[in-house]
Amino acid sequence: GLILEAQSLHQEALEAFSFSLSINPDYVPSMVSMASILRTLGAKSSSIARTFLRSATRLEPTNHQAWMGLGLVLKSEGSVLEAADCFQAAYELLELSPIQDFSEQLPILLQ
Length: 111
Hints:
Serine Threonine Protein Phosphatase 5, Tetratricopeptide repeat; 7 helices; TPR-like_helical_dom_sf; NPG1-like
């Protein structure tokens, strides 16, 4: 899914992440990735992305990517104060994280 997403093959990436979630519905990285793609696709998918991200933050409250994504969705929906709280949580969690996430480097590796 990540490779497909990095190649801007959004529909195929959504299918891959959906398959992942069909195997493990609580797999937070797939939730975050699904939400990211849905957010990219536009406002029509915003509520679905928000649902994935709220679930992700509930299941894994220390996932800074989930908090950042939720903040971006909420900001796009006009919930600026709630978005700011999410951004703050994401920043604080990122600062506490001792290891850089490999998936953040994937687009660079594919170039």
